[in-house]
Amino acid sequence: MRRLTAKALFAAVLLAAATPAAPALADTQTSGYIVLLKDGVSVPSVTNLAGVTVENLYQSAVRGYSARMTPATAARLARDPRVALVQPDGIASIAAQTLPTGIDRIDAEQSPTARINGTDERVNVDVAVIDTGVDLDHPDLNVNTAGAKNCSTGRSADDGNGHGTHVAGTIGALDNGIGVVGVAPGARIWPVRVLNNQGSGSFSAIICGIDYVTAHANEIEVANMSLGGSGSDSACGSNKDAMHEAICRSVSAGVTYVVAAGNSSANSSTFVPATYAEVITVSALADFNGQPGGGAASTCRADVDDTFADFSNYGADVDIIAPGVCILSTWKGGGYNTISGTSMASPHVAGAAALYKATHPSASPSAVKSALQSAGTSNWNSATDPDSTHEPLLNVASF
């Protein structure tokens, strides 16, 4: 399987690689599979099987596990009456591209809940960052280190790439007079590492992260997934896509998921989780000065001010647009960096969802999505949108 990686220090956005592993290997070679079990079946009862090496157990979002096995073993397991689905594992990754000009453009400084005034008042909300991890010691972030989870390589959920830390800063960097400020300043960040230091990871690791978030759905209100891979939509309960089943049940548990549309200048219908109806899918706006109207000179990368970002995916699956070009945010090692991508647009919306949940704690994920879309504006050059469905531009002034 080919892994796509993020170019160091340059934008990150996600979406690239995710063709499931093709079971064209010799019968003696093993590869990764995801196994979902039918309702009522005990997970341990279907793990202790000859030729199956279990890697992750899933018991909250879905019931099942990921494992390594030969194609022949996978085919035999698929015929087991206790098994609902055996799916080849896949690969997801961040894809490279390029300050909070985004915070300015969505009017976060006008939000009465954000209260951006330099006094370090913190929004009482919890947000999971399902990504490359988060810098656990960053002075400009309120990281819930006790809630950190590592489903990827390495020994902890600390960020060895920078992408996850960048996402976390846009969501909730502290309003403390240094560095940058996030949409929901001081929101408690739960680092859920599912991608490695190269920005790559398996679908099974991502499901591990979703499973963890679901187990803490009574604490975590919002989850951001600035990642993705190739795939298609399916219906909840159809057992055709293990990641989708996991997100369906996590959303049913009350967690609002915000995801990046992807950076392939393509229709989001062929990317997961962007195509799932249960999430909030975000495209990227090119904005270089935090103000509407266009005309500002480009900065860190070539694009046109106030237009649909030239790399952003599009289509009917996209729910809202947010700034995603030349975004300054926190970075690994206690630093800061400017990068671009729908990975940078998505956390603006995750921060907005956090603001809304802080004042509407009982709002369902679908209600959160509706509120964000209703509060959005048409104050951008939507004629540059590649499709006829022009999504509203995120605005949190009333939140």
TrEMBL record:
Q: What domain of life does the UniProt record list for this protein's source?
A: Bacteria
- Region annotated Disordered sits at 377-399
CDD domains linked: Peptidases_S8_Subtilisin_subset (cd07477)
Coiled-coil regions listed in the entry: none
User: Where does the secretion signal sit in this chain?
Assistant: 1-26
Residue intervals of the Peptidase S8/S53 domain: 125-375
The active site is formed by D131 (charge relay system), H163 (charge relay system), S343 (charge relay system)
Q: What keywords does the record list, in alphabetical order?
A: Hydrolase, Metal-binding, Protease, Serine protease, Signal
Q: Does Metal-binding count among this protein's keywords? A: yes
- The Polar residues compositionally biased stretches are 377-386
Residues of the Inhibitor I9 domain: 50-91
What's the family? Answer: Belongs to the peptidase S8 family.
In terms of PANTHER family, this protein maps to: CEREVISIN-RELATED, PEPTIDASE S8
The identity of this protein, by name, is Subtilisin E
Gene name, Swiss-Prot/TrEMBL: aprE
